[in-house]
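Model: You mentioned two targets. I'll fold them one after the other.
Researcher: Yes, keep them separate.
Model: Target one:
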Amino acid sequence: MKLAVTRTGLDVPEPLRARLEQDDVAARLARKDATLWGPDAESEAAVRLGWLDLPATSRSLLASLAELRAELVAEGLDRIVLCGMGGSSLAPEVICRTAGVPLVVLDTTDPGQLLSAMTELERTVVVVSSKSGGTVETESQRRAFVAAFARAGLDERQIGARFVVVTDPGSPLAETASDMGARAVFLADPTVGGRYSALSAFGLVPSALAGADVAALVDDAEQLAERLAEPGNAAMELGAALGAAFHAGRDKLALADAGETPVEGFGDWAEQLIAESTGKEGRGILPVVLESPEAPGSSGPDVLLGLVGAGPTGAGPAVGVTGPLGAQFLGWEYATAVAGRVLGINPFDQPNVTESKENTQAILAAGLPDEQPEATIGAVEIRGTAAVLRGVDLSSHDGLSLTLDALLAAVPPRGYLAVMAYLDRLRDARAAEVRTALAQRTEQAVTFGWGPRFLHSTGQYHKGGPQVGVFLQITGALDEDVPVPDQHYTFGTLQAAQAAGDRKALADRDRPLLHLHLTDRAAGIDQLLTALHC
């Protein structure tokens, strides 16, 4: 089955199509022409186009991955935990969920979720995956697992044999892997950016070790790669559609899984790819991951519905993309690069991603801010900016409902509301229902992200994209905390510092923000959902 793109209710204007053909964009992109995005982007693009070669170059990984998996299984090590953020975790999660094989993905600093992952150590191998080798979440998780294996009675040599490392050549993690005697180290192509790395070692290593058929992914991607130089290829059609929708005022892409065989989690992967690639210089395409094609937010004057796994059946505007997962990965990456040219931005940099990280480090050094709540209602402490709370009667018995009404009222026309939940996405999974409940009450786009994961994804769009966002941050009290070995802080402190650092980044842009802290997570989520359904 080949990649196919179909559209309803959306035209790609002839001048745009003609310009793409006259500029020979398809062939130039296929041969990695770094001049496609203008002189300001050329130096970055020149070292970020290796993803186009992955369908061929990643084939060399397959035999060694099959051998390593067989070796691990023979030793009874059949549980794979992946420690990684953003581009290091989103693609493997999609691959394994779609294949129906178990993979524990740890892309959080939440202590409860960490403790849930640090179980069944007798059969566990940890894949530590970081392109830079300095990702604070991933390094903290690595330290925690080393300590956990030591408590379980393993010596240094045995501990090293429980780790597989994926990183770029010359990174600090590559050196750490050597020092600790990691069982295997896979050095990825440094010319592949994180969000374009689905078909690289970052996507394939944890997936293969978990039992997914990664050879099929490479085969399917290679079939598409052979046609990417053709002007009318499916990935070019998708990129042109995304760009045309943007210029028609449809700068929100509502993503939904619509196939008979679900591509589970694909929206979360595409969300990072598109938001981080296009959300900069005050513009961009905002992905909105939906629970279903019919979920609130699937239509609107600024919305293009994107269906993964099926063609559109209604009048649109909508675009449907069908084809096997390997081709989907490569096709969406190619389309995003094309959309970047149409939007006039560099799709390979992320100029605003480091801001919240730097804020976090400063807060860890100085200590968490002492922020008193404006009010406490049941299990919910309320804090926020004047743009949200001004005029709200917080002493009222329905003060939480009034606060949420004010939050929705703060969203401007053609703006969006982003829900950012620094919680345990397993035990606190019901928090995701907040997106649907809010979207039912507004015509504006509502997104949802788990913190700190979204900082490596839509966080770039929040800071660098159009400044029309309104933000709801949800944090929660801890039942138990976990120290980060050999550091002066705990995972709970790191999580709180990341939330505070992101609040500062948004406050520095004068964005409306409501911060709800749940003193009891389960009760607070119930209370929040009840208030939204009133």
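Model: Target two:
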Amino acid sequence: MGIIAPTLPDIDVAAWRAKPRAERTRVLQQHWALHGFGTPLGVYGLYILKIGLYVFGALAFAASTPGIGGLADAGDWWLSPVVFQKVIIWTLLFEVLGFGCGFGPLTMRFLPPIGSFLYWLRPGTIRLPPWPEKVPGTKGSNRTILDVALYVAVIWAAGYVLLSPADRGQGLIEPARFIPLLLLLPTLGLRDKTIFLAARSEHYWVTAIVFLFPFVDMILAAKLLMLAIWWGAATSKLNQHFPYVVSTMFSNSPVMPPAVKRRLWRDAETDLRPSWLSGTLAHVGTAVEFGVPVVLLFSRGGVVTTIALIVILLFHLNILASIPMGVPLEWNVLMGFAAVFLFGEHAEVGLTDATQPLLVYGLFGLVVISVVWGNRRPDLWSFLPSMRYYAGTWSTSVWLFGEGAEQTYADRVTKAAQLPHRQLAKLYPPDTVDLMIGKLQAWRGLHTHGRAMAGLHPHAAADHESRFVMDGEMVCGSAIGWNFGDGHLHQEALVAAVQERCDFEPGQLRVIAMESQPFWNPIQRYRIIDAATGVIETGEVDVAEMTSRQPWDGSTPFRITWRDESAVV
């Protein structure tokens, strides 16, 4: 297969298939420890090309601003205020079209690697309203012409800003030009929360709000939002999960030497818990996200600011180079650019310079509330506005399809793409497909919550060994066109939408849904859902128990709080 050939373990696949699921997963987790997903070289080329097109698009829209100069003169104008405005809106558009987070093979999207905008432009597909019982006119899971029109209007509104001129006085886009986008995106989000989240609204839409402020207030408010993002991410890493994220993520890095990958684990063959090195890297990363933004905020330029900028740029470059699953690549490019523009080019703007402090600190206060509330009650908030980025605290799910259920799903649900194994079957022989799907399950199991999920399989179905098991995030990407770590998108609401279309019998489809860990609470709660009858079991598991186990060990003790014994199948 040349440049699309994955790196997989050299094993007897027939003998491997005959083993119990835990033993099959163990083999692939040991392989992941040293080789990661085994991503083909061609896939890395695809993502490098995508980043290049993202950067080119940002520069092209900036250069379209009358009077700013051409692309050849970018060195003279790349830190102009209007460029920052257009880069933010371009990144929002890039994401809302599906080219950013959740794109391509590293989210198990192969054929096609993208489908979001095609799916969201299609009436009859699934939409997920956030509060259908509370917001009038939003009930139902069926996308209508109205939803499509709103989505088109959001794209138009972003393009309207990107093609706008800049005021010759301050070099900024007229504030009124942002208003259509600021109104249309949340309106669409009330009909379908997926698109609102896919736009990375907690960052780009909120930043667009500050473009309504006077110049100095705009800069200061944007700085405070960056501070909230860094501090929110750092706060979410104050847990036992993050070293597991570090070891798993860096094992997948194409630039990490094999000798270092081996040292990320206590023992790459027998003990797949993070080593002291992974723990140290986790602590250093957390300290950087807490400390460097404070230096940037207060240093006001000079050598100290320059050193802090170099550190934060290296921090984001490190994440970028690891090519993490979910691939938040453009976001890391944007964070680097925004840091240079806000804290380097405009280092002189400080906390006491606000001309409209109520606007600046009022908005910042709302962002802080979303972070604090989201950390204490993650069951009520997406991890994105809670800014719990890539810390291992995600809510998640696993879908267990009984006999014939996956085929029913394939036939009856209008999807952005088939489930990953069906996509891969068009590219690779069956042995390769099974190993690649197994590597996905191995990746999930290397995280703390993945250990618990494996132990819950027998709770969900007595015949779990013979069932087709798929990570809920992959079902999400298939069923609603986008997936980027938010387990709430593939729990009860999506199960109900799929059931509405498939009419499964009791027991045919079981879903294990696990909520993320609340801040400073040592447990994670789970639910087991039958698509036809509803919740059949609830309970909780100690995070400390999960961290003490090997990823293939399904003996983690669960505290069952309620169970319908008649529902066991």
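Researcher: Noted. Anything on target two?
Model: The longest helix spans residues 276-299.
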